[in-house]
Amino acid sequence: MTQDAPKLLPAPLAPGKWVGGYRIVQKIGAGGFGIVYRAVSPTGQEVALKEYLPAALASRAHGDAPVVVERSKRALYRIGFRSFLEEGRALAQIVHPNVVSVLNFFQENDTVYLVMNYLQGASLQQFIVTSASLKHSKIFRESTIRSLFEEVLRGLRVVHQHKMLHLDIKPGNILVTDDDRAVLIDFGAARDVLHQGGKFLQPMFTPGFSAPEMYKRGKPIGPWTDIYAIGACMFSCMTGYPPPDAAKADCRAKLETMVADLQGKYSPLLIELVLSCMQTDPQARPHSVLSVQKILTRPPQAVVLEAQNQDYQSTRFFSEALRPASKPLR
User: Fold this and answer.
1) What does the pLDDT read at residue 309?
2) What is the pLDDT of residue 203?
3) How is the beta sheet containing 111-117 ordered, strand by strand?
4) Domain membership of residue 238 as a residue range
C-alpha cells in the first residue's frame, strides 16, 4: 500500500504581482491561516499584507494561479473567510501604539487581505531564548518585565474595550520593535465573542499559555482568558521557559513549585501577580486588565536584589547585546 504524498502548501503570490492596488515585494511568513507578504501601497508606503489561504482548505499551484477549494471544504472555507474579514473590520477600529494596526482590508482572488503596518523588531520569545542561553541568575530584570507588560496591557485593555479577545497571547505574539515598543500581533484567534455570550467554537491551544477553560467545551471564554496568558508570559520572562500545560491535572502544583524558585530574584508582588493571573478558576483571577495594571504599577517592596536604582531606571526594555537580529512583522 502506498502512502499519500504530503499536501503541498499553497504557493505564495509572485513578487511584483499587484493585488488590491498593492505591489507584492516578497513573502515574509506563513502559517496555518495563510501567508504574509511585504508589499508597497499605492502611495509608496511599505506594508505587511496578510492573505487568508488556509493550507488545510485551499490550494494554489503557483503565484499567478487561482485559489482552489474542494467542494467538500467550501463551507468551512467560507466560514473562515467571513471570520478573517470580520477580524480585519474589528482591528481596523483599533488605533493604539501597542496593537498592530490594520490599515485596510479587502476581498480579491476569492480570498481576503489585511493590510498592516510593516514593523521591524524581534518577538519576546526570541529575547527570552537569547537571554536564557546566557545562563544569568535572572532572565530579565524586574524593571524590564514591568515596563514591557505595562505597554502590552495598555494595548490589551483597548482590545477588550472593543469587545474583542486575543486568545493567543504568548511571547511569540508580542513584538518588541526596533524603536522599543511592545506590540500585540497575530490576532489569528481573535473573535468578536463577547457579543455572543462568550461562546467560542474552535479554540487554538498553545500549551502553557492557553487557560484551562479553553480546553473544556462549554466553559465561558472572556477577558479572564487573556489575563491567564499574560501571567504565563510574565512567568516565561522570569524563568526562560513556558509554564506547565493547563490541560494537565498537576499543572497548579507544578506551577507553584517552579514559582517558589523565584523567591528572592523578583519581588513578592510580581510573583503573586503571576500566580493570581494563572489561577485555575477564572473567578479567582484579576477581573480586568485594569486590575492587573494597578497591581503591576505598584512600587515593589524591598526585595529586588540588584542595584535597585540602576534596575529601575532603564531607558530600554533590553540591552543591545541581548537584541536578536531584527525581523519584520509576520
Assistant:
1) 42
2) 52
3) 18-19, 22-30, 34-40, 46-52, 111-117, 102-108
4) 120-328
321 backbone dihedrals φ, ψ, rounded to 5°: -65, -25
Burial 292-328 (b: 16+ CB within 10 A, else e): bbeebeeebeeebeeeeeebbeeeebbeeebbbeeeb
Q: Which three cell numbers stand for residue 74?
A: 467550501
In a domain, 1, yes or no: no
Residue with the bigger pLDDT between 34 and 6: it is 34
Confidence of residue 307 (pLDDT cuts 50, 70, 90): very low
pLDDT (tens digit per residue) in 11-55:
999 999 999 999 999 999 887 778 999 999 999 999 999 999 988
Alpha-carbon gap, residue 295 to 97, rounded angstroms? 22
- Would you call 89 helix, strand, or coil by DSSP? helix
The Cα–Cα gap between 306 and 157 comes to 31
pLDDT band at 111 (very low <50, low <70, confident <90, very high): very high
Residue 123, SS3 per DSSP = strand
Grid cell at residue 299:
512600587
* E strand or H helix at 311: helix 308-311
As for how many domains the chain has, the answer is 2
Neighbours of 289 (CB within 10 A): 22
Which residues are CB-neighbours of 20 under 8 A, at least 6 positions away? 104, 106, 108, 113, 115
Rounded Cα distance between 279 and 259, Å, is 13
Does residue 124 sit in the same domain as residue 112? Answer: no
Cell numbers standing for residue 171: 511571547
Reported pTM: 0.84
Q: What is the CATH number of the domain that holds 67?
A: 3.30.200.20
Clarify whether residues 90 and 140 are in a common domain.
no
Give the residues across from 107 on adjacent strands.
112
Report yes or no: 39 and 48 within 8 Å, Cβ to Cβ.
Answer: yes
Euclidean distance between CA atoms 226 and 96, whole angstroms: 18
